[in-house]
Structure prediction request, 160 residues.
Amino acid sequence: MEFGESPRVLGMILRGLSKQRQPEYFVGTIVLSEDAKDGRKQIIDGQQRLATITIMLSAMRDFLAKENHTDASKAIQTDYVASFDLRRKELEPRLVLSNDDSQFFEALIVRSDPDAQPAKQRDSNAFIAEARDFFDKQLIELKIRIPENGTIISLSCSSS
Prediction:
């Protein structure tokens, strides 16, 4: 997966969310197919957009945790980023990237564990880290501009 378009996509999403103030924002079509082996959905088109949204959600999760909004932080983690498999006793990512980016993405984005983060081995790893840094900075700026009782961002996702 190539993240070369990430800065443009990131800016587009944030501008769309903050300037339009509309209840919905269309990020494009996502094409999925059923994987016959394990029943999971396989992404045919839209993996970069889904990865970018997942990166944004992970930044929101960690931002809310730092602001002592633990319930909201946990909800973002379990609803959008990863669930916890009780049988295997490990996180089950909602989005699994290709082998080249999977380990880096899971450590930095899914687990949010910079200490366990493998070295950046590909350009796309660096783009993932840059996208995360971008969202971290944007959330800090949003906090400065939004009053204490304001809503930062509300997201919903339709299964259809």
About this structure: The beta strands are 31-34, 41-45, 82-85, 90-93. The chain has five helices and four strands.
